[in-house]
Amino acid sequence: xxxxxxxxxxxxxxxxEDLKRFVNNFISDVFDTVxxxxxxxxxxxxxLQDVSFVAANTETQVAHGLxxxxxxxxxxxxxxxxTLYDGTSTWTxxxxxxxxxxxxxxxxxxx
Length: 111
Known about the structure:
Low-confidence stretches: none
Radius of gyration: 21 Å
Number of domains: 2
Distance between the termini: 19 Å
Structural class: alpha+beta
Helix content: 10-25%
Strand content: 25-35%
Number of strands: 6
Number of helices: 2
Shape: elongated
């Protein structure tokens, strides 16, 4: 997991040398994490789901763990050539509704 380890507790700094050390450690931690250490699941509000569309052009309910209404999704993989598109049902904090142009097993990133 790539999360910041440095504490944001700058109020515990009591002198200039401690402040310099604190800022240096914090910036170093941010630099190391952001430059090559970010991961979708750990650092971004996303959910990766495997979904089976058993019929073409038929709305399929997809559960997600975002705990908020999603703003979108990306197709990350599929066993066949297909296009995903929004269903007609309203998305919620727990589900979104999609259609596939083909019977397919896909992997989608929900955000």
